[in-house]
Description:
It is built from 32 helices and 27 strands. The strands form seven sheets. Strands 3-2-1-4-5-6-27 form a seven-stranded mixed beta sheet, sandwiched between helices. Strands 15-21-20-19-16-17-18 form a seven-stranded mixed beta sheet, with helices on both faces. With 806 residues, the protein is of the alpha/beta class. Helix 1 crosses helix 6, helix 6 packs parallel to helix 22 and helix 15 crosses helix 22.
Amino acid sequence: MLSHLRVLDLTDGGASVAGRILSDLGAEVVLVEPPGGAASRGLGPFAGDTPDPERSLEFWATHRGKASVEIDLASEAGRDRLTDLAAAADVWIDDRSFPDLRVAGFAPEALRKRHPRLVVATVSPFGETGPKRDWAATDLTVTAASHAMWMTGDADRAPLTCSVPQAFLHAGGDAASGILIALAEREGSGRGQHVDVSAQISMMQSGQSGVLAHGWRGTQMSRSGGGVAVAGYRLRFIYPCKDGYVNLTLLFGVPIGYSTQRFFDWMDEEGMSNDVLRAEDWVAYGAKFLGGHTTVEAHEAVMEAIERFTRTKTKAELFAAAFERRLLIVPLSNVQDLVESEQLAARDFWRTVEQPGADRPVRLPGPFARFSETPLTIDRPAPALGGWNGAWTPTEPSESIGDGARRPPLEGLKVLDFTWVYAGPAITRLLADFGATVIKVEASSAPDALRSNGPYVDDVPGPENTANFSNVNLGKQSIGLNLKTPEGIDVAKRLIDWADVVVENFSPKAMEGFGLDWARLRERRPDLVMLSSSLCGGTGPQRLLAGYGTMGSALAGFGFVTGWPDRNPSAPFMAYTDYVSPRFATPAILAALEHRKRTGLGQHIDLSQAECSMHFLGSAILDYTVNGRILEARGNASPHHAPSGVYAADGDERWLAIAAPDDDAWQALAKIAGRSWESDPRFATPEARLEHRAALDQEIESWTRDRDLGEVETALQSEGVPAHRVIDSPGAFADPQLAAREHFVPIEYGSHGLLPYEAPRMHLSATPGVLSPCPGLGEHNQSILGEILGLDDDAITELVIAGAIE
C-alpha cells in the first residue's frame, strides 16, 4: 500500500514502532545507525544469553522489517550521505537517540528548509517546545508525567508502570498516524511539514479521559490494583483462580451491567451466592455506591464472594463461560499462553523469519491487521548492521510548492462511525480533528456505554455530562438511528453509500445481524474502506467474544506483566488495548485510503485489539520464543539500569519517579543526595546496582521521603538526572509543559459552557488539528437526513414515526 514511500528512520527504542508500522504497510524504511550500531543492539535479553550486537532481542523487536545503513556524522562523507538520502526521502523520523544529529545540522527546521517536500517527524519525551523540552527522561519518568501511572498499581504502594516500557511505543504509533496525515496533505500542497509528538501526551491517553476530572470539577479516580477506585469504593477486575488469574470486568449500568447480573446468577446456580447478592440489582448497583447507599465493607464483601467462586474454577472453565453465558471474563495470559493460543493459531498470527545472528529461525508476531486486498507481508527480519548500500534518486519538488494557505489534511474524507466506548471513537475523533466529516451513529434506546462512565461535570452523572464520552467524540456529527428497525437499516445503507470509510468495533455477530457486514457491503460498495475492530478479530474460535479493553489487556498479556513480583498482577489502568489499538488502526485506514486513491479499490480491515497490541510487548515475546523465558511483573524496575523506581516524597500521595540510566546520571544523583552511596561497594558499578536494587531503592526513598517533591525534582533535572513527579489530574492542569503545549483546550459543551478537552496527540506545524464541540445525541438528524441524504420533510417524518430516528 505504501511501497512508493521512502522513510529515513533515525530512532531507537519505543519510538521506532513508527518506522515498523510504515514498513509493515509496505514503505521502504532505512534505519540510519551510528558507528557500531544503534544503542538497542547492546541491550539484553540476547538470543541464547550471548551478548552480541546482532543477537539483541530488543533490537530485533524494534527494527524488524527495516534496512540498515551505518553513518558517521563526524565525517564530511557521512554528513553528505545523510543529506543525499534526505533529499530523496518522503519521511524523516528521529527521536534524539542518534548522537550529535542536530549539532551536525539535521534539526527539524533546517531539514524542512533544505527539503520542502520532506515530512519530518520527531518523537521526544515532552515535545519540541515548552519548558521541559530538554528535560532528561526515561520511559519510566515520562509515564510518571502522563497521569497514566497515577491510575496504575496498588493503593498501598507506589504507582506503577508496565514491566515492558510503553510510553515511547504510544508516541511512535502517534507519529505513524501523524506522518500519514501529513502525507495526505502533501498530495494537495506539495509541501511537507513537521510532525511533533510528545511521549508525555501520547501516553496520557492510557488514562482514558480521567486526566480531565479536575478541569470538569469532578472527583478524580485513583489506583486500585487490577481495577480502579471510585468514590471511595474499589472496583476490582483481577481475581485468582485454580491455575492463574482472570479478568472480570465488573461494571454496572446499561448495557454492561447485564453481564454482571448474569455472573451473579451463575454463582447462585453453583450454590455460592447468598440472600444479599441474590437480591441486588446489579445493573443499578453503580448508582447505589455512587450515591453512598452501601458501605465499603458491604462492597468489599461482594468482591470476596466473587473470589471464593473464581478460586473453584480454572482459567479455561471461566473463559468457556464467557461464551456460554455471555460474561465479561477472560484469562490473564502470559507470553507462553499467547504463543500457544488456539485463537492465534487459527488466525495464523505467528510468523517465522530467518534472522541474522540467530541460531535458528525466529518466531515473532505477525500482521497487526488483516487487509482483504493487500495482506501485510511479515517476512523481513531486523537488519544486520550497515547491510544496505543502496541509493535513492532525489525527488523533484512539486510545482505546487508555494506559500499559500493549506487545507485541512483530511478535508473531504467522509467517515461513518458505528463505534462505541473508547477505541473506535478515538480513531474517528483523530480523523475529525484533521478535517474529515464524521457521522456518529447512536440511538437513545441503545446509547454508547461510555456515556455511563465518568469523570462527570460537577460529579453529576448523566449521558450528556461525561468527559470520557465527549473527549473522544469531538468534532463529529450525530444521528440518532435505531438499527433494530428495517427503516433504520435502510438509512444506514444510504449513509454507507455516502461514506468513504466505515468504522465499527462490535463483535462480528452484530454487523452480520444488521446485514451490514463486509461480505454484503463489498457488493454494494467495492470502493469502500471498512475497519472492523474487535477483541479477537473476525475469524477463529474466539471471534464472537464481546467485551472491552480491560479484557483485551488481559488476553494480550499486559495484565500479567504489570504489578509487583510479590503480589497478584495489577494490570495497566482499565481498558489498555483501547489505547494501543488506535495506534495501529488509524495508520491502517490511512494506508487503505492511499491504496484506494491509486487503484480505485476499497477493502476490509480486520483488526484484533489483542493481536495488534501484542506488538507492544516487544522483546518479552521474543525472549520466550527464542530463550523459553516467561516475563513476569517486576514493579518499576528496569532490567538495564538501577535505580529505576518511584519514591515517596513529603506529603500524602506525593511520588517521584527517578532513573539513572548511565554512570553520569548516577554520579549526579549521589552528589545531590549527599549520601555515601558512591563509596558503597553495593552501588559501585552498574552491575552491582542491579544486583542490590532493593537496597538502593530503600536508600533513595529514605532520602526523598521527607523532602519537598518539587525541590528534589528540580535539583535532579538541573544535573541531567531523569526525574518527574507522578502527576494526578490537578497536577496535569498545573503542569507548565502541558500548558505551553496548549494540551487542554476550552470548548463549549451543551449547557455546561466552556470545559477543557485534550488536544490531538500530535502537532502538525502547517495544518494543526482543529477541535469543535461534541454533539448531543441526534443533534444533526435533520441536516444529515435532509442535506446529506436529500430526504424531504415527509420522508423524515415517516422515519420518525417508524421509530428509525430517535
